[in-house]
Amino acid sequence: MTREGNEWQVELYEWVTEEWPDAYGVDTATDPNAEYEFHALALEIIRAERAEGWIFKEGEKGQKRVFSPSGEMYFDDIPHYLADMMQRQRKLIMRMEDNLGISRKARLKAEKTDEASDLIKSFAEVGASLITQSDKAYDPDEFGPPSDSDSAE
């Protein structure tokens, strides 16, 4: 994006492309694809904000003329034509955030995965410490062949 446009658009673009990667721990210097995705995300957010501003000014409902069978005209309220587009735009933004791993859903999933990994790692460490801290050496004769009393049961 060239640094043209309204001041709020430039500020929003810079905020998303410059501050969000640091805030979410994404290193755009080593991942050019992530840098591009933040750029694309910023543009989509700006588009969404523009459309929301337009809907706010115009109103969320429009009217269309309807003619009854008798020929009388009346008006029906209809949703603003941008309202449906806004829903699709928000879904697109959410998918882009998921792809970057910065959405709330993606971060919660990553936290759960990290917690499960930490739990498995701690079990492995406990098991390893039990094996390495044994007091006695392995004695193959300690567990001899089963006796007759064991096989009678």
Structure description:
Helix content is 64%, strand content 9%. With 153 residues, it is mainly alpha-helical. The protein has a two-stranded antiparallel ribbon with strand order 1-2. The longest helix has 29 residues, at 104-132. The radius of gyration is 32 Å and the shape is elongated. The mean pLDDT is 78.
Which features would summarize this protein structure in a list?
153 residues, mainly alpha, two-stranded antiparallel ribbon, 5 helices, 9% strand, elongated
Lay out the secondary structure.
Layout: H1 7-23, H2 32-58, E1 61-67, E2 73-79, H3 81-100, H4 104-132, H5 148-152
Antiparallel strand pairs: 1-2
Helix pairs in contact: 1-2, 2-3
Lateral strand order in the biggest sheet: 1-2
Name the structural class: mainly alpha
Question: How much strand?
Answer: 5-15%
Count of individual beta strands: 2
Helix-strand topology string: HHEEHHH
Low-confidence stretches: none
Helix count from the secondary structure assignment: 5
Using the CA coordinates, give the radius of gyration: 32 Å
Main sheet specs:
2 strands, antiparallel
* Approximate shape: elongated
Helix fraction by DSSP (H/I, runs of at least 4): 55-70%
Distance from N terminus to C terminus (CA atoms, Å) equals 82 Å
Question: On the 0-100 scale, what is the average pLDDT?
Answer: 78
